[in-house]
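for the record, two folds in this file. i put them one after another cuz i was lazy. first one right below, seq on top, structure tokens after. the second one comes after a little note so u can tell where it starts
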Amino acid sequence: MDFHHLKYFVEVADQKSFSKAARNLHISQSAISRTIKALEDELGVVLFMRNAKSVELTDGGTIFLTHAKRVVFMFEHLKVDFENEFRLEQGSILIGLPPITDAPIFAQLLGEFKRAYPQIELELYEHGSKKIELSVQEGLIDIGIICTKPNPKEFESFYLTSDPLCVILPRDNPLAKEKEISLDMLSEESFVLHKDDFNLHDEVVKSCKHAGFQPHIVFETSQRDLMLQTVGAHLAIALLPSRLCPTKGENTKVGTSVVVRPLVRPEITHTLYVIWKKGHYLSHASRLWLDFVTAKLPLPSGSVVSEGK
């Protein structure tokens, strides 16, 4: 077994096709088939179920893929990370973050890091927290920003920031006269929520159920402006972190047609965590970013940073 055996195996698993994998790797299909067969013989396990239309991993193949991806990733990054350690600080970091990230804080962190390490490239991918967790697990991105408490068995993590949710209502909604709003007061309202690949979606639905009602969801979106427009059109109410709510100084049609009220009983807090895969190789550039962020954002009292970077 050598590196090429593993690389060919990972490509076939990703493409679910021997022919597509062969084209991507610029080798013949027969060569890649022989390599996979030799790998299966060496392991004593069938890695793929083959049929005329597709190729699917067996249970053994699924387990082996996790280890193979880790080895391939480390091998492909070996030269770059070695040079980073002994020459210039360079490389790239793939970071996944939800659209509801605290933009001012995060943008400031990225800007300061880029000024400190101009030769390190930052690539950002915007997805819901659930997809970000999965992407970190699969090694598709290096670091993730999520808004739910990470599973310590799967991720190393640290606290980034938190923000309470507020209720956004049409200005002529009867509840707009209230100074603060409890969740049970919204039982008869229609909701516009983030899509269900956002953990905040699940948190709101769960809190509504605890308050004694199932929320009537009329629309789901990942776009903050579209959510506010839906409220401004009298179609629904919304729950957003306070920093993403329209302000009195936001002189737009939407900003002047809605009101923002604190959500109480219960207060729902939108908390962000930085995560990376536990026990997984982390590039030098990624370790620099984590060290930089933790130095810039001292942990609140009682918080614990997971070790093992």
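(here's the note) second protein begins now
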Amino acid sequence: MTLPIFPQNQLVLASNNAGKLAELRHMFAQAGLDIEVIAQADLGIDDAIEDGKSFIENALIKARHASAISGLPALADDSGLCVDVLGGSPGIYSARFAADTPTFQQASARADKDHANNQKLLTQLAPYRDNPPICAQFVCVLALVRHADDPLPIIAQGLWQGQILPTPQGEHGFGYDPLFWSPEHAKSAAELGSAVKNRVSHRAQALQQLLSQLKNDA
């Protein structure tokens, strides 16, 4: 299936994350969408400066940046963890939540930075442990622009509701997955198999919502 919003049947993904690229290509293929998804790095596009105040703003910044340079429609996502008792923190700063700590600054591996972020989150939540559960949401916002100045971008949002554990559980996943408890599955995100996670996660929900909107535009 071809769509009028992709005149060249091409789409730039404003990310260099191989996992996101593979997931998007797979879901487009399953939906029968004849669209070539290109990583921005393959077009020599550097990362945008994410200086927005919300997930939507940052996703749009990245999408418009990639579209302006490539001349093609572009899709970007912005994701993170929002904890209720922390006023939505770490939010858009989830990936660099512990950037002000020596542990994070000295870390070179992504897993070590994840560990630093998790430890800072646990420290900040310590005063609230007497009143469980500590509710949180994984958030994913997708922004698709037809061109860099698109006044009507397509926005899709996924929310995965859960709770924050007092200690990490599970060996899979990344980021805050070991601390994110899914009451529906009675497991942490790091204990869920990829098949389940790819069906219920915030990103999976946002992608399904995006595909639904694209099909409606067909």
